[in-house]
Design brief:
The structure is a single chain. The protein is of the alpha+beta class. Helices cover 16% and strands 43% of the residues. The strands form three sheets. The chain has a nine-stranded antiparallel sheet. Helix 1 (17-30) packs antiparallel against helix 2 and helix 3 (145-156) packs antiparallel against helix 4 (207-213). The termini are far apart. This is DNA polymerase sliding clamp. Pfam families: PCNA_C, PCNA_N. Sliding clamp subunit. Responsible for tethering the catalytic subunit of DNA polymerase to DNA during high-speed replication.
């Protein structure tokens, strides 16, 4: 009699599937395929959008997971739209488990309600090579997530470009159009938690790209914004679990 033994390469469980659902929702708007690296110390992902004007970087330490058994680096390449279809069935308080005993495929289990198990082919997706960025910014602000998202929603409805101005009073967001939509975020009004700046600054960014990424405001109550004139806007979403997503968006010139 022959006994077949199956050895797990990796097994990782995360408690709140809604975090991952928000992240993949944002990714699906930017890229067709992506690769999650399950490393020995945690999870990483880097993706550049189709037009190469924005970048998403995800980092979640292993301590943020309910279970994390990864003996050596494991890359999970996936189609973002397909993965999103799987996650779209998830409900609040459900957890997700990734497991693999074969590098060519991965098993995904969603549990907590009606348990479902999906077997997915592991795609060969090469993560983009990104040079080390050391950007110095004139403005750094911590803003209310829902307030910032609402402001961008208002502006993107009438303008393709969002202008962000910063001074000692706070942030002023407005559209580059004849509509005259302006939204002020200040500490007095509650839209800003804090702001630091070396000088008053103004820069312009794509309204559509901002709208696409701001689904990630579901990750936390506050976001950190950093920018300078004609430099990429950096938005950091700090997750309650301890992970974070950093988003870089190139400025609109002219």
């Amino acid at each position: 009699m022959h006994i077949l033994y199956t050895f797990l390469i990796m097994r990782v469980s995360y408690d709140d599937i809604r975090d991952l659902k928000s992240i993949v929702t944002a990714l699906a708007r930017l890229v067709d395929e992506a690769s999650i690296k399950f490393g020995t110390e945690g999870v990483e992902l880097i993706a550049i959008d189709r037009a190469h004007i924005s970048l998403v970087k995800l980092s979640i330490p292993k301590d943020a997971f309910k279970e994390y058994d990864v003996q050596e680096d494991f890359n999970f390449g996936f189609n973002t739209q397909y993965f999103l279809k799987i996650l779209s069935t998830s409900k609040r308080k459900e957890s997700i488990t990734f497991e693999s005993s074969d590098p060519s495929s991965i098993s995904i289990e969603i549990s907590g309600g009606l348990n479902r198990v999906y077997s997915i082919r592991n795609l060969d997706v090469s993560p983009p090579e990104i040079p080390e960025l050391n950007l110095q910014y004139d403005v750094s602000a911590t803003a209310n997530s829902s307030g910032f998202k609402k402001a961008i929603d208002e502006i993107s409805a009438v303008s393709d470009v969002t202008i962000i101005k910063a001074d000692e009073n706070g942030l002023l967001l407005k559209g580059k159009s004849e509509s005259g939509v302006e939204v002020e975020l200040s500490k007095d009004m509650g839209g800003l938690q804090e702001i630091e700046l070396s000088k008053p600054t103004e820069s312009s960014y794509s309204s559509d790209y901002l709208s696409d990424i701001l689904v990630l405001t579901k990750l936390s109550g506050f976001i950190k914004l950093s920018f300078s004139e004609q430099k990429p806007l950096q938005i950091q979403f700090n997750m309650e679990s301890g992970g974070n997503v950093t988003y870089l968006l190139a400025p609109q010139m002219g």
